[in-house]
Amino acid sequence: MDRVPALEEPLKKLLGGPTAKVMAEHLDLHTVGDLLHHYPRRYEERGQLTKLAELPLDEDVTVVAQVADARVHTFNGGRGQRLEITITDGSGRLQLVFFGRGIHKPHKELLPGSRAMFAGKVSMFNRRMQLAHPTYAKLGADPAEGGDTVDIDSWAGALIPIYPACKGLESWKIAKAVDAVLPSAQEAVDPLPEALREGRGFVSLPEALLKVHRPRTKADIEDARQRLKWDEAFVLQVALARRRHADGQLPAVARRPAPGGLLDAFDAKLPFTLTEGQQKVSREIFDDLATEHPMHRLLQGEVGSGKTMVALRAMLAVVDSGGQAAMLAPTEVLAQQHHRSITEMMGELAEGGMLGGSDLGTKVVLLTGSMGMPARRQALLDLVTGEAGVVIGTHALIEDKVQFHDLGLVVVDEQHRFGVEQRDALRGKGKQPPHLLVMTATPIPRTVAMTVFGDLETSVLDQLPAGRSPIASHVVPAQDKPHFLARAWERVREEVDKGHQAYVVCPRIGDDEEEAKTAKGKKKAEEAETADKRPPLAVIEIADQLSKGPLQGLRTEILHGRMQPEDKDDVMRRFGAGEVDVLVATTVIEVGVNVPNATAMVIMDADRFGVSQLHQLRGRVGRGSAPGLCLLVTDMPEASAARARLNAVASTLDGFELSRIDLEQRREGDVLGQAQSGVRSSLRMLTVIDDEEVIAAAREEAGTVVAEDPDLEHLPGLRTALDALLDKDREQYLDKG
Questions:
Q1: Each residue of 486-504: pLDDT tens digit?
Q2: Half-sphere exposure of 273 (CA within 13 A, CB side)
Q3: Could you give the 3-state DSSP secondary structure of residue 244?
Q4: d(C-alpha 585, C-alpha 5), whole Å
Q5: Taking phi first (over 0 means left), then psi (-120 to 50 degrees means alpha), and beta for anything else, what does residue 420 get?
Q6: In 3D, which of 693, 696, 643, 690 has the Cα closest to residue 668?
Q7: Alpha-carbon distances, residue 582 vs 183, 334, 468, 488, 575 (angstroms)
Q8: pLDDT digit string (tens) for 387-401?
Q9: What CA–CA distance (Å, rounded) separates 546 from 556?
């Protein structure tokens, strides 16, 4: 964890150039400390064999198994030779294949009954899993026999650590490298305050590193894991606790709605009552807005749970108090959609200062990058004079030219779509730090909320407004059962015949510019070896096929991110007005698009989307009184992981359940905002989903430690660990929140 000089030593000094180069390029390991924190993925026992039946396809694996039989086959009229070796672990079998001259050594060494560790990439041939030309190390063999051998006893006692490996660097080679750097573990400085470590009965950090890499017993592994997990959770929570503490010191203007003002007038106009959930969350937000330090709140809610209504009421409360509110949307389509729906909901209250507008009203302006100059100039003027109380826009709001009269609240829609710098720049527009409300329709498990959004208070909307309809979801296996796909298009026609509308979603646009890029990336795609060897389906081609084929005669339009903004807005407006039957689109419709009359959605190549994204897309239908239908079309075979993922989406409408599935299938690093912070995940041992108790306890301890010593002056070990685990980029990422 800590980078004292011994742990900062570059690996190439100790391991030599070639090994260090592979470690740096493929495993992102550069120093002794990095390698000491590259923990074994699991451990094998002598006499215990791995589950061959559970090997993942297309992944580099290390297995310990016994040779069951070995046979040489000839082909090409006797000119070619192939060695097939079957290995077993008692629960399953796996085929190893060697070709040409590569068969002689394994044929001589891997005799039936011998045991070895094998490493390679799992592939499929003739519907059977295999390792082609795996590297191997015999277990307990005599080194005099030649070849790569590993003596279990001298190497790792009874437990063999299996490391996350890569091509050119097998697990046992990493183990030898760890042996070379393990003495440096003694110099690791312990980040935990001594009282905390002793109170929780943890082993010291040097001891934990020794036990995780070279355990003698299973209890050693458990001791090490508990300690190392705790370190990761605690250091991260200390960073977040310091952030919360710093925010608590900042000044902000308290914003309270005026009695009989704009908010009361808006509430009186509402044709429905707010759900209990909306009322409860609104109270939490209004309490925060009334304090003299900035609100930092995350509002998460299921697709369609009425987050926009809650956010709008908060914005109107701020306008009531004399301030301005800005809503930041990730796309122009969504910004226009929000502007349209908010002005419709507010009616004459959105026309403050205009003829026919309400005396209590304010101006609601839209600001996007593609607006014409006169409209843009007027919008900027309305913001700087304070004429406009509410502004909705894209990242165009962040530009230097945009000045506010008195920015009191920033609402960020779909947090994960924005770079950190963008959110920070908007926050800097206020005379004092404005209050911040972050909204997401991607449900986030509690542990992730505590980790990723640990500096935000969290509100959850889990109740759907009355009048919302259920959505039926089905997987359509187009390759296995083509007649299912034909039926899908019939269902779309049936919905249109009933007076409803439909979406068809494709992963790609498919215009010439994109094709040129695709040709460039073709080699990469071939290396990726996608199951079907074809590029993802494209909006332009599919729209053409549908309008000439199964959906002939229906009014079909396309929508994608590369269209001119006025064209996009025109298509969305006509779709909203019911003048378009079928909208063939990319994921630009994923968030916030609200057309209650759209009841059916067909997602092409559904396996190419993530679980949360599919859930978001599906949320575009069933928004009115008629039931929704979502069809997930895929060419992937029944036994594939992709199909299992789609079946999970089809089986539940519970976004929190799906977010767990999504998280389990992705690396933790993705969850920690790696893409936004540009640094690798700091988590090696902690898993955000499973370690809820550890994270919750670490959060509590971190809060106590930071309250007593915000600058960690008396805890130099913890400071150093913080610098190492949260290098400058990541610390900034947390700071900008």
A1: 999 999 999 999 999 999 9
A2: 5
A3: helix
A4: 55
A5: alpha
A6: 690
A7: 66, 19, 22, 13, 8
A8: 999 999 988 887 778
A9: 8
